[in-house]
Amino acid sequence: MGRKFLVGGNWKCNGTIEEVKKILTTLNEAEAPSEDVVEVVVSPPFVFLSMVKSLLRNDFSIAAQNCWARKGGAFTGEVSAEMLVNLGIPWVILGHSERRLLLNESNEFVGDKTAYALSQGLKVIACVGETLEQRESGSTLAVVAAQTKAIAERASFWSNIALAYEPVWAIGTGKVATPLQVHSELRKWLHDNIGDEVAASTRIIYGGSVNGANCKELAAQPDVDGFLVGGASLKPEFIDIIKSATVKESA
Ligand SMILES: O=C(CO)COP(=O)(O)O
């Protein structure tokens, strides 16, 4: 199937120039498994993208945390997919729950953004996930299916999409969704609604309180193809999380 383990570090709205330099030193000096085993994608805030691009080791890649849904122009405060491509940024994270919930990004809007970013040649980490209320009311699968469907209806191909399942109640809370049943349900959804090939090849990564202590156990779960890490991606333990990719190798 060849789904290479993907570890994303979402720095969110954090960092100063000094802190970014420190994180980069840690990343650059770390011993990491080879690029054949793990794909590492670091996602700093927009203002640090150029700096990270010039200082980060070559075997790690970079993602922006958002981009505009259409061609750039008179959209004050937005950053276009074209700009990211021009800057040499290969990835973008779209549909993070913090944007869905705090900035009212709808499923349709996230789908539009994903389709446009793909059309410009960007690779997309598309985030889906339910709130605690939705989980408790038993609608987890319906919620993540609707989020995924809005992407599927707009995206013309899946080879440059990784899905990140990030239950809102697990983000920054220390709570982890385990066992990760939703991953196999999402893969089944891809199988039933898009096809075999996409279901077999799309990476479904997990986000929500992943840290150096729990990463190995999570990595070992079937259908978990990597992580999207928040808080721990700012700390040296991010290296341990990257190394957990080797769990898959020995599986
Ligand atoms: O939102 C996340 C990554 O995008 C997860 O955040 P935490 O790892 O801090 O829970």
Give an overview in words.
The mean pLDDT is 96. This protein has helices at 17-29, 49-55, 81-87, 97-102, 107-119, 132-136, 140-152, 181-193, 196-201, 215-219, 237-243, 246-250; strands spanning 5-10, 38-43, 60-64, 91-94, 123-128, 161-165, 204-206, 226-229. It is globular and about 45 Å long. Strands 7-6-5-4-3-2-1-8 form an 8-stranded parallel β-sheet, with helices on one face. The protein is 40% helix and 16% strand. Helix 5 packs parallel to helix 7 (140-152) and helix 7 packs across helix 8 (181-193). The chain has one domain (5-250): Alpha-Beta Barrel (TIM Barrel). Strand 3 (60-64), helix 3 and strand 4 (91-94) form a beta-alpha-beta unit. It is built from 12 helices and 8 strands. It starts with a strand and ends with a helix. With 251 residues, the chain is of the alpha/beta class. 1,3-dihydroxyacetonephosphate binds next to strand 8.
* Number of domains as seen in the coordinates: 1
Alpha-carbon distance between the termini?
Answer: 14 Å
Number of helices: 12
CATH top level assignment: Alpha Beta
Largest sheet: 8 strands, parallel
Please state how the strands of the largest beta sheet are arranged side by side: 7-6-5-4-3-2-1-8
CATH superfamily: Aldolase class I
Q: What would you report as the Rg, rounded to the nearest angstrom?
A: 17 Å
